[in-house]
Amino acid sequence: MSSASLNPSTRPEAIDALVSGVDRYNPQNISVLEDYLYHQIRHREYDAFANLAVLKLYQFNPELYNPDVVLNILLKALCAAPLPDFNLCVALISDRPVSTDEDTEDHVPTLLPELQRLSSLLHRCRFPAFWSAYNSDALALLRDNYTVEFAGFEDAVREVALRAVRATFKRITTDRLSSYLNLQGEALDAYIAKLGWAQENGVVSIPANPDNQIQASVVRENIQFNQLQKLITHAYNA
Amino acid sequence: MSRVQLWAADQEDEDLADVDLGLAIGSYGQHELQPRFDEAAFVALQHQMQQQAAFAQIPDVVKRFLVSFHRAVRENNVAEISAAYEGGWNKLTEKYYAKTEWPDPDVVAPLVNDDPLFLILYRELYYRHVYSRLTPDVDDRFHSYENSCELFNFLLNSDGPVPLELPDQWLWDIIDEFIYQFQSFCLWRQKSKSKEPELEEDPALAQTWSTYSVLNVLYSFVQKSRINEYLDAVREGKSAEEIADIVGEYGSKPLYRMLGYFSLIGLLRVHVLLGDYTLAMKVVEHVELGQKAMLTRVTACHVATYYYVGFCYFVLRRYADATRTFASVLNFIGRMRQYHTRSYQYDQINKTADRMYALFALCTALSPSRLDDNVLSGAKERFNDQTARMARGDQSAYEELYSYACPKFISPDGGVGMWGLPLARWILTGADSPHPLLQALFREELKGQKGAGTLRGFLKMYKTVDVRKMAAFLEGEFKGADEVVMEMMVLKQASRSISHMPGESAGSLLDGQSVSTSDLDFVIDENIVHVAESTIGRRYAGWFIRNAEGAERAYDGLRNAALPKNLKELQQAAAAAAAAAGQPQQEKKAVSFAKVGA
């Protein structure tokens, strides 16, 4: 996990004090943290550490459990790939309460395996398969109830794909990029333009970055002075 | 009066002279004088007699030991407490209590003037012995919890700091054992709930060993001792007076400071057991790892800390950090082995070390990188079969090592399972492993790594290669060039990891920057893969230095050896001896002389 999502600059001070101290165990703070999650969703921010604190409170106080919040946290974590955030979240919902409230339907049991599969596809960079799974009928529930209100979910997934592309490619065919981003025609052109990447004859050039510049090197051994201490002492005394 | 005879017999022991016999006998004698005979008194009397009988059974040497142990604790004589704690206790355990409990604390009470503090400490040892050597029953688990609470209450809620001093090792063991018993309780409840459902309804059990109460104790010590502030102040190089000001009256006492410090490590462990790895690492962000750190004072603490920190790195996919963490402590254990072969914790340390070798083997399989040869050969020695199978891409080998090496996870409601189906069942088949969910998550991790080994091997042979050509070669494994390209992205991302930069010790354990962990790097230009390999030049220096030092030693040895006084005399003597022995040996002699001359 990167230190950025553990300590994002966007985190308000009040939240920081809350999650860094013992107060994170206080069940009364759950609404503050839940509100903060929805704030993250609206403003396209991400604070993994605060979201884990929510799951922790559910872990200890099953009566607080709110399935919608859990699913939104999982969706947020999904978009952090290839960081392991999704698995870290799932590890905290090991034993899950059966919702006692009949009115609110608990979608976690149905959707969790699906999300797990989506996470695995992203982790394995199977982006076209991700999009077709995501847009399948089986996941209409997820799209209609959750991601529809999740600002920029699809863009966040595209960002996952772009991270992989940036690191791996110098140039990539537009078709390939299109299948990774699930964008075609003008929408794709606009997206590429927004990234500031050059497009020519169906090939997109990716600006140089530390990961797509490769260099062969020979690591030479480095002798420290203290390794020679004994030898030199001996020579001096001899 | 058998009782008096017993004491009379004991009085022959000079070492026991310290015991306040009058007091002990006095308290025993009281019931004799009761004029009325009623039921309660009779029961009490019976109880008393049983205790006397039990008391009579205690070997004299144990009695003497307890008396001097008590005196050492009362006088805060840390050296003597250490000797009794690490030496006497274990020796007597081997001799008298290898298979039974130590004497009941109530029976021991008169020996130590009913000193409540010493009895709490005694019970701490008593139950620890039950847990480690025997099988604790429900009552033991219950009472050991009560006793721990009593001890912590006494330390945390007295008026002002308690003037008690205990050796670091014992303080570590107190915290360590507290968590161990908590963990053991959770696992036991998980197991026994299926057999005895009525256990669940016992309200007393629901309170006992609750996760909240355990966390509460640990956090209380951390706060009371202001250990985080202390560690920061030390790092900033503040003076002793300034530090004393910062940490307050509790934190300046070694007992509280060390308990606070060990509680941080305890929290690290509890959070890992609960599956919260980020929080675990966050808790110890003020703790410095390293050879000179505070945690090296107690070897068991040193080893445990590295194990849990390394495991967190492993789960966070920071394999480079995990590898470095394990290598550092495994090398340390290797060096220590020469000195510590008979320490009573040695077994435990060795077990943890073996699990770290397994995790090390996993890390190197998942993220091949420049390695510590010593540790690598240690890992291969222990897990040769699995290492070979992992190299062939056999998933079950990974899982074997993982389930062997991971901690025994617990669930926060103590595994009572009030909440219906565990999530794990939805995700995975084969729910029979001890911690199915986290095992399943690890399996998910592995899926991402499947094709990486094959691709790596393939890429090593090329400088440039077309992905379509690769697809043709690897037809069995991947479906078409598109899939090869996607797998290449996986490989690329797997070769990048966030890592602590070498030499950058400051900052939290979770800090770090993205680095390349692989010696093989590549980039794709449309459909052409360009490969660059970093090679490590052969290492000569170590070899030369070692041999040069060897030569010097030989040279010194030769120079210091006494030369024969007269070479000629020696030769004549040798010739005479050879002549006496006959012709055939003449030749041999010449050869051996030639050697000496050379």
Q: What's the SSE blueprint?
A:
The complex is a heterodimer of chains A (238) and B (598).
Chain A (H helix, E strand, L loop, with lengths): L2 H4 L6 H8 L9 H14 L4 H13 L6 H12 L6 H8 L15 H16 L3 H8 L5 H6 L7 H16 E5 H8 L3 H11 L2 E3 L2 E3 L12 E2 L9 H9 L1
Antiparallel strand pairs in A: 1-3, 2-3
Chain B lengths: L1 H10 L9 H9 L9 H19 L2 H15 L3 H19 L8 H4 L7 H18 L4 H20 L10 H28 L7 H5 L3 H15 L1 H9 L4 H12 L2 H20 L3 H7 L15 H17 L3 H18 L9 H21 L6 H10 L1 H8 L3 H11 L18 H4 L8 H12 L4 H8 L4 E3 H7 L6 H15 L1 E4 L13 E4 L3 E6 L2 E6 L1 E2 L4 H20 L6 H15 L2 H14 L1
Antiparallel strand pairs in B: 1-5, 2-3, 4-5
Helix pairs in contact in B: 4-5, 7-8, 8-9, 9-14, 11-14, 12-13, 14-15, 14-16, 15-16, 16-17, 16-18, 17-18, 18-19, 18-21, 20-21, 21-23, 25-26, 28-29
Structural class call of chain A reads mainly alpha
Task: Extract low-pLDDT stretches of chain A.
Answer: none
Task: Kindly state the number of beta strands of chain B.
Answer: 6
Helix residue percentage of chain A? 55-70%
* Rough outline of chain B: globular
Number of helices of chain B: 29
The pLDDT mean of chain B sits at 74
* Second CATH tier, the architecture of the largest domain in chain A: Alpha Horseshoe
The top-level CATH class of the largest domain in chain A is Mainly Alpha
User: What is the distance, rounded to the nearest whole angstrom, between the alpha carbons of the first and last residues of chain A?
Assistant: 55 Å
What would the average pLDDT of chain A be, to the nearest integer?
Answer: 81
Quantity of strands of chain A, as a count: 4
Output the radius of gyration of chain B: 33 Å
- What spatial form of chain A do the alpha-carbon principal axes imply? flat
**Which strand order do you get reading across the main beta sheet of chain A?**
1-3-2
**What fraction strand of chain A?**
5-15%
CATH-defined superfamily of the largest domain in chain A = ARM repeat, domain 1
CATH topology of the largest domain in chain A: Serine Threonine Protein Phosphatase 5, Tetratricopeptide repeat
Into how many domains do the coordinates of chain A divide?
2
Give the class of chain B from helix and strand content and strand pairing. Answer: mainly alpha
Main sheet makeup of chain A = 3 strands, antiparallel
